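Protocol step 4 of 6: structure prediction from sequence.
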Amino acid sequence: MSDERALADRLGFTRGQQALEIGFDDDTDAALRDSVEEVTGQELLDEDSDEEADVVLLWFREDDGDLTDTLVDAGSRLVEGGTVWLLTPKVGRDGYVEPSDITEAADTAGFNAMKSVAAGADWSGTKLAAGRH
């Protein structure tokens, strides 16, 4: 298995899943994006798409606005049982988001944090599933 493919495998992506990307910018991790497309066999939908997705890849930086509102919007784009991968800059990187802010925003938006992983050289990923505790 290629290292590129291993990124999306580690995040639990599977063949045939449709992923929607929100918050794309010059700083997003190209290897992770490519990995998701390789594993799923699908191109990433951009945030202007009207399609619902199995997974939302949400790139979010501290200055990107209100995280709770952004998560509510992301959740509205999911199929039943879908998940959000909230991707935030790692500690010490520009745009770092405090874990307590992620937990509070996720809870308020109706998500449960399932797990956190390193999602590339500069990004951390938090898997969020809809539903209350």
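Step 5 (inspection) to follow. The chain has four helices and five strands.
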